[in-house]
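User: Just a sanity check before I run the rest of the batch. Below are the structure tokens for the first item. I only need the designed sequence back.
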């Protein structure tokens, strides 16, 4: 049903010469992916509100999404499974952040271990999106730059006394590390 809505939208755009008929499938795919991203963001916000951890969910997502985009990792076979897996993942992350007693040293150690996993495995390609050798080099470089910047942020926030922020970023690394291992 959802696909038919996007097909109708792109058909209307093409018939009004806003997009070309050759690009119709690309736009349909873009609308589908955009709607899934929006659904995931709304769900993440709702989970954050339910657990009274909205800012933690936002920081986790801001750290996780760019890294995941370039590092790759496990992909579910269907969009529904992907959505359900993402919901479960966010809930587990929130519960870990909320109930595990964290210390600065443990945050740093887990950050270093997770970063090592990411550096050694990324990018992990998906069978639906194979990468050529040039793309692998580019994705690896971008992953490393994002990771370096985010590890720097972990250290800065710990130094400034905002370990709670560092925990959220560290959990993004840990979750991504698991996704990369599962995607191998």
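Assistant: Here's the designed sequence for the first item:
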């Amino acid at each position: 049903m959802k696909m038919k809505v996007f097909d109708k939208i792109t058909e209307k755009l093409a018939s009004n010469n806003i997009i070309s008929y050759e690009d119709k499938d690309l736009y349909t795919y873009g609308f589908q992916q955009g709607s899934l991203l929006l659904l995931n963001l709304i769900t993440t916000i709702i989970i954050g509100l339910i657990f009274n951890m909205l800012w933690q969910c936002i920081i986790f997502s801001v750290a996780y999404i760019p890294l995941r985009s370039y590092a790759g990792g496990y992909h579910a076979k269907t969009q529904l499974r992907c959505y359900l897996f993402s919901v479960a993942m966010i809930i587990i992350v929130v519960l870990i952040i909320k109930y595990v007693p964290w210390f600065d040293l443990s945050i740093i150690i887990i950050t270093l271990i997770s970063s090592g996993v990411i550096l050694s495995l990324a990018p992990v390609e998906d069978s639906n999106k194979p990468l050529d050798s040039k793309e692998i080099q580019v994705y690896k470089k971008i992953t490393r730059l994002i990771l370096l910047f985010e590890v720097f942020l972990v250290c800065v926030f710990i130094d400034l006394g905002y370990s709670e922020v560092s925990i959220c970023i560290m959990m993004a690394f840990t979750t991504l590390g698991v996704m990369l291992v599962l995607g191998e």
